Amino acid sequence: MISQAEIKLWVKVQEDKGIPVETVKNRLKNLVIETPSWGYADCGTRFKVYKQVGVPRNPYEKLEDAAEVHRLTGVCPKVAIHIPWDKVDDYSHLKSYANELGLGIGAVNPNLFQDDNFVLGSVCHPREEVRKKAISHILECVEIMKLVGSDVLSLWFADGTNYPGQDHIRKRKRYMLEALSQIYEALPENARMLIEYKFFEPAFYHTDLADWGMSYNYCLKLGERAQVLVDLGHHAQGTNIPHIVALLLDEGKLGGFHFNNRKYADDDLMVGTIDPYELFLVCNELIDGENDPATAECARNITYMIDQCHSIESKIPAMIKSVVNIQTAFAKALLVQRDALRQAQEEGDVIRSESILKDAFETDVRPLLALVREEMGLPQDPLASYLQSEYPKKILERGIGGQGW
Ligand code: PSV
Ligand code: MN
Ligand code: MN
């Protein structure tokens, strides 16, 4: 528990440094972090799906768990859904159930990787009938968007090949554009299409949408409402993700962000657990983008989502931890003394520039987050509060063998 005296002292120290604490607090209060329905369900690795007692048995229970995360953190009012994992008979009912829980439905994600027909690809498959099937599934998701009130279609394609010569790369590239164009035309009026990339897995030779440049290329051809989605787990080791974020922001093409962490690949670990400095540097670019009139509009419209398939951790605690770690990184990014940094950069003072950034990263923001939560009527420590609540006991009634992939 952080005392009022500690909080007061923290505020004074920051104000003395010239940090606009009120502005910082407001930005933290307005942060929206969407959580994924699948992050509450059973998942695993390619070797095994681990079953946990108490995971949701249907999409409605996933929403209930997401509502619990929102109740404790105050910044997760939206839930992304994945079709058909979250298939229901009545999507309007799913929407009203979410609303009753104080939630809204966020991004709609088609599933283009689990149907046996998609073994050689979905929209890039060599056979026309399979490509058509993939497109019609995505168009079905567009219809679902209308029913659940979603304005984001989030696309990730597992398409690719395993061997040189397996298929014709340029032909597949054209198929991708044909499909995306057809889907773009069908988007609801105010909706955006986010195009995610990933350099490998499940394909191991070439992936049709392997990096930000490929996504960006399609987005440029499609139009304003097509934007790139950056997932922290989808790059080769050593890739400078903050640089990609900065570039896409400057081009007005950064539309979505998937938070997670990995040591080697993809999204298996809780956000901020392996490389909190990288997370901070990403948030630094995002906040810097918000402060720049040239990029502010794009930066303020980014959909922030957790995309995490933690498999050995308890579901809700892992989600809360990720949310808290994202808030921590954003809080630190908001403390960067941007004017001083600009000046040091312009003077070419390498040591001072790096130190200014590092100084913000090394600031303990727990008193700030405690204050923000207090002002939002939330518990200081959402995870401790969850663990002490009745909810973890209540969900045990669901038993084992809930939904999962
Ligand atoms: C597969 O890598 C993946 O994790 C992508 O990041 C998608 O966003 C997610 O699955 C949901 O389809
Ligand atoms: Mn993702
Ligand atoms: Mn992923």
TrEMBL record:
Cytoplasm as UniProt keyword: yes
Domain of life: Bacteria
InterPro entries hit by this protein: L-rhamnose_isomerase, Rhamnose_iso-rel, Rhamnose_isomerase, Xyl_isomerase-like_sf
Residues in coiled coil: none
Keywords: Cytoplasm, Isomerase, Manganese, Metal-binding, Rhamnose metabolism
Record-level Gene Ontology MF annotations: L-rhamnose isomerase activity; manganese ion binding
Gene Ontology annotations of biological process type: L-lyxose metabolic process; rhamnose catabolic process
PANTHER family: L-RHAMNOSE ISOMERASE
Name under which the protein is recorded: L-rhamnose isomerase / sugar isomerase
Organism, scientific name: Thermoflavimicrobium dichotomicum
